[in-house]
Design goal:
heterodimer; A: 313 residues; B: alpha/beta; 7-stranded mixed β-sheet; 5-stranded parallel β-sheet; 15 helices
């Protein structure tokens, strides 16, 4: 078991031990318990997320070698490597180039490789964070990272990086989901004040959005303790790297902002639900009222008929 | 009807005197006539920002940094800095250079000093945190309780209890320049306080952009007091009307003035040179000195280089070096974001500072350059200019004394016969700028209550 205070639970699976040569790793963060591929680390969240190594190629195989060469040249992964290192979609993932180096003072991450990490094939995603600290050099952008450190430190630094990547990706996905909710919120906000007969058909839609916001809020509240993690003392290299990444990517502030935004969305949908509920109750009461009126009217008519019949009119 | 005005004198134009004047003018609801005496040609005392002659590269010749307690509770100094509209720069550093190795974290400690030493350091750290929580740390200067360990009253004894010699050496080197004395000369509380200040949960460090002296300049610009530079106060006595009389020399002539209250805001060595004509007061001041005089020393060697050759290996605002019993090297240029200068400042403390201070400046600069580890040896050939500043007896090794007195008693040496004479100083709290503000706040609050409640004096 690898002991590292910066991460939650680490794998003792020998198949995930780091090779001593430069290699590329394809990692996904998933909650799927059926996935039997090697688990690098498990995260301390209620859904049981894990970092899983999906690379199927051996570190010294041609696919890996081609992928390393391509990244060092700043190119996209070659065809041979792409099959092995195809970047998955739909889940948080990370393509990580691991570079164990002995002479760290004389070696730097090539600028071409930095460009590769920065672009990530997505326009507008060129937000590379580069940290050089106490011999370790790490470049990270969402979905891609390069890690250069002494072979004796590289394992703990990799785990600290994965820990950061998971919570950053989780936060980013919540931020994206919150951003996508604003156009609907704009349309739905009037229903928080006035609900009429035409809006009745939108009740299930509003309920689904409210549930979605509550689910996002749950996810956000689960990761908040990890975003606001206190500094460890005395520090380890891994804890220093984790702290710097959290600081540089402003995880704490971003977590606060997303919580504020979710609170607004939750209040609007809560109010919409309240208005819809009030309206439906009022409508039922109204119907019952009319039914009583009709029944009383019928009773009066019958009484009148009965009265007229008894008087012989 | 004549407006009544309270007349007060402040002796000492350092941070304590300026803070007291600023706060007193702010808190007093009645008119106050303040006179501030300063023996030297400048205000600011131990806060001194200077520049080199060859290039306008600034550096701190005196107080290096401010402590930020705002993560625990209200931080009066941070609030004052904010109130004065000054910008700050956060300072950080975790590296200790020992035996040519750069120990920046626990992994490095394990590699260089071994697993047993690393475990001993972690164990000491845990016991230090158990002995003093962040809240205890925050309140330490205010209380007159001492952190006691069974059979241990000196910080040196606490270190002696650690079995691992490498761990002891590491801890000693880490905190030596902050203590400015040897572990056997200070209390467990003060030693622990100086160890725990490295923990971010306890406090953070910051400096003022443009130089720490911006603080005293801003204070001096805002006070209305009559400032008398180059006026050395020689004697405090009582006049026939029962008021305190201050005698000061200026350009070989002596003058005197009488006051309703006098606040002595002098470092303890200058306080010892002040004459009190009333034997009762002189005895009380001697008792005050005997209780608080535990001298600690600093020596600052600051060197301007061609380029910041240390930064690739030692990022951060400062790092510790195992030479001179443990000294701190400040990257002075990191205080001002965007600065192109390369200034490294050695802060040597304790007996090493006392031992080295008689040496000539050139010799001290040579010793400083020789102290650089071999990985940084190329810097020895890149010196542009160097300056040396000696701060002997400048702070207290045992602030508050062996058994800290109640706060009122600390500030009034003779409350019965001389309730109109107060003292202000960092040595009454924790030998820091935060401590001197605590002291100034206490006295100015006390005196302003008297001014606001009393009838004042007819001018």
């Amino acid at each position: 078991m690898i002991q590292n205070p910066a991460v939650s639970i680490c794998s003792d699976d020998p198949s995930v031990a780091l090779p001593a040569t430069r290699h590329v790793e394809q990692i996904i963060f998933t909650t799927d318990r059926r996935d039997t591929r090697p688990v690098i680390m498990s995260f301390d969240d209620s859904s049981g997320s894990r970092a899983i190594l999906t690379t199927s190629d051996a570190p010294n195989a041609s696919g890996t070698a081609a992928a390393v060469a391509a990244i060092m040249a700043g190119e996209e992964l070659p065809e041979a490597g792409r099959r092995t290192f195809e970047e998955p979609h739909g889940e948080h993932h990370l393509t990580l180039l691991v570079m164990p180096e002995i002479d760290l003072d004389a070696t730097h991450i090539p600028s071409a490789a930095l460009r590769w990490a920065a672009t990530n094939g997505r326009p507008g995603r060129e937000n590379l964070v580069l940290i050089a600290i106490h011999g370790a050099q790490i470049a990270w952008a969402p979905g891609r990272a390069l890690l250069m450190a002494h072979p004796t430190r590289i394992e703990s630094v990799r785990l600290a990086l994965l820990d950061f990547c998971f919570y950053e990706a989780e936060l980013r996905s919540i931020e994206d989901a919150v951003s996508m909710g604003w156009p609907n919120l704009k349309l739905d906000a009037p229903l928080a004040f006035e609900f009429d007969d035409r809006s009745v058909s939108r009740r299930s839609e509003l309920s689904a959005r409210f549930q979605r916001v509550v689910a996002l809020r749950c996810r956000a509240s689960q990761i908040m303790p990890h975003l606001n993690r206190p500094a460890i003392h005395p520090p380890t290299l891994a804890s220093q790297i984790g702290e710097r990444f959290r600081e540089r990517s402003r995880l704490e502030s971003r977590g606060d902002f997303v919580s504020d935004q979710l609170e607004i969305q939750e209040r609007v949908y809560e109010q919409c639900g309240q208005r819809a509920s009030d309206y439906m109750i009022a409508r039922k009461e109204n119907m019952l009222g009319w039914m009583i009126v009709v029944l009383l009217s019928a009773e009066i008519v019958l009484l009148l008929v009965d009265l007229l019949a008894s008087t012989g009119v | 009807m004549v407006m009544r005005t309270w007349k007060a004198a402040i002796i000492g134009g350092g941070p304590g005197g300026l803070m007291t004047a600023y706060l007193l003018e702010k808190l007093a609801a009645a008119p106050i006539d303040l006179t501030l005496y300063e023996a030297s040609h400048r205000l600011g005392g131990k806060i001194q920002t200077m520049s080199f002659g060859s290039t306008p590269a600034p550096y701190e010749a005196g107080a290096a940094e401010f402590y930020d307690y705002s993560s625990i509770d209200d931080d009066p100094l941070r609030l004052l800095v904010q109130e004065l509209g000054l910008s700050i720069t956060q300072m950080s550093g975790s590296a200790v250079v020992m035996d040519e190795g750069f120990l920046s974290n626990l992994d490095d400690v394990r590699d260089c000093l071994g697993d047993v030493a690393a475990a001993a350091i972690v164990a000491f750290d845990r016991s230090a945190q158990d002995a003093m929580s962040p809240r205890d740390f925050y309140a330490l200067g205010q209380s007159h309780r001492e952190v006691l360990r069974q059979g241990i009253d000196r910080f040196g004894d606490l270190l002696d209890a650690i079995d691992e010699p490498h761990a002891v050496r590491y801890i000693e080197r880490l905190i030596h320049s902050d203590l400015a004395t040897e572990p056997n000369n200070t209390s467990v509380s003060y030693g622990l306080q100086n160890y725990l200040m490295n923990h971010p949960a306890y406090m953070r460090l910051y400096a003022i952009e443009g130089g720490n002296e911006q603080l005293t300049r801003a204070l001096a610009a805002r006070i209305k007091a009559r400032i008398l530079l180059k006026h050395r106060v020689e004697c405090v006595s009582r006049d026939n009307a029962g008021r305190l009389r201050v005698e000061a020399t200026h350009a070989n002539s002596t003058g005197s003035d009488s006051f309703d209250s006098v606040i002595v805001a002098l470092p303890i060595e200058h306080l010892a040179a002040l004459h009190f004509s009333d034997p009762v007061l002189a005895q009380a001041m001697q008792r005050h000195l005997d209780h608080h005089d535990h001298p600690a020393h600093y020596l600052r060697i600051t060197i301007l280089f061609d380029r910041p050759f240390w930064r690739p290996m030692l990022p951060g605002s400062f790092f510790m070096l195992d030479r001179f019993d443990g000294c701190c090297l400040y990257d002075e240029s990191s205080r001002n974001p965007g600065s192109q200068h390369a200034v490294l400042g050695w802060l040597i403390g304790g007996s090493a500072a006392l031992r080295l201070s008689p040496l000539a400046d050139d010799e001290l600069v040579r010793l400083a350059l020789d102290s650089l580890p071999s990985q940084l040896a190329l810097g020895r050939g890149q010196v542009v200019e160097a300056r040396v500043h000696r701060w002997l007896h400048a702070v207290s090794a045992l602030p508050g004394g062996c058994t800290p007195l109640p706060i009122d008693r600390r500030h009034q040496p003779d409350p019965l016969n001389h309730p109109d004479l107060f003292v202000v100083g960092d040595y009454l709290f924790d030998s820091t700028l935060n401590g001197v503000l605590d002291s100034a706040e206490h006295v100015s609050g006390w005196l302003s209550d008297l001014i606001n409640a009393g009838p004042g004096v007819l001018l």
